[in-house]
Amino acid sequence: AVKPEAKPEAAKAEAKPQMPKEVAALIQEGLATRQGRQDMPFGFYKHLVLPAQGANLYPVFFFKAKNGDLGYAPSASGSGEMETTLNVIFEILHDEGGALKPMMWGKSQALLKADGSGYSPDNEDWYSFGMALPAGKYTLALVLMTPDMKKMSVGYHDVTLPGPEAYQDALWPTEPVIVAGMEQVEPDPRPTVHRGYFTWGAIKFVPNDSGAVGPGENLEVFFFVLGAGIKDPASARPTNDLEVNFEVHGEDGNPAIKWAPTSYEAYFVNQPLPLVQTLQTTDPDGKVVKEEKKPLAAGKYTLVAKIADKVSGKTTEAKMPFEVK
Questions:
Q1: Residue 169 to residue 147: CA distance in whole angstroms
Q2: Is the dihedral of CA 296, 253, 307, 279 positive or negative?
Q3: Distance of alpha carbon 171 from alpha carbon 165, whole angstroms
Q4: Are 164 and 135 spatial neighbours (Cβ–Cβ below 8 Å)?
């Protein structure tokens, strides 16, 4: 189970040392157009905003790159894996009335590994970079470099993080994610790059980035619900009282599957949902004479989560497209 206290803390601003001058110049060069030098081409394509300690939020930024561009080579350990080492430098720029002001920067070294079987330098994979920040409008500048600094690339991504007022008067669900794997790990305090997963405090999430599941497979989802009331504020272990009704809607907007309501005592919702339809045949009096279960047919669907906070009476919905194929 995920513990609420596992929430990531906000990254500490580094006062010293100064960012290398050539890296600062590289970031500045492409900042206005959000297009900079790309010796190792990579591109951001989305972000996911999760909760963090206090009033902070934890944006996770996702980018894609080809294996060959990032310099993967057979591991010297003889494990059969492919690996590459990249120096990572990030800068967070705060949008202050249209002017971008440097707020913090940091650096780390990322040892990235790929399965050797089926490896192709032409294959494109996805990567993540996450860190906790207070409310505000920001631009992330992410620099990837070879350790000798001969190859350097910079990418930019804008994000707006709402303040607590966004979920004081209403429930604020984070974007639902399909879970392919989830495990407890040692928390890494460094904001750094991960391949094929992202971290949230001491939790490692492997999301199903394609959004496609096989016939008969479970659809496991997770999301957070911010703004829920506390059941007993005086309790030593305060809990929430959330009820979620999950439904799958077809492309025509009609429900294809409905599940019984599920209750949650924490603001973290993690639920495996069997993609099986129950078809009932009734007689003229409406009595069920036959019941048949079958896997949800191939096609495009939307998962709808109808969320009710039993403490405050507030309600909301979260939606997520997915495909069965």
A1: 48
A2: negative
A3: 11
A4: yes
What is the C-alpha end-to-end distance of the chain, expressed in Å? Answer: 30
Q: Which residues of the chain have pLDDT under 50?
A: 14
Neighbours of 235 (CB within 10 A): 9
Q: What is the dihedral sign for C-alpha 42, 51, 164, 177?
A: positive
The 10s digit of each residue's pLDDT in 205-234 is 999 999 999 998 999 999 999 999 999 999
Beta pairing, strands 124-130 & 57-66: antiparallel
Residues 72, 76, 81, 87: what is their CA dihedral angle, to the nearest 10 degrees? -40
* Residue 33 structure tokens: 């157009």
The C-alpha R_g of the chain, in whole angstroms, comes to: 23
In eight-state DSSP terms, residue 5 is G
Cis omega before residue 176 (within 30°)? no
How is residue 153 written in tokens?
């690339």
Contact 305, 261 (CB under 8 A): no
Nearest partner of 202 among 187, 191, 219, 180, judged by Cα: 187
Q: What is the spatial distance between Cα 56 and Cα 58, in angstroms, rounded to a whole number?
A: 7
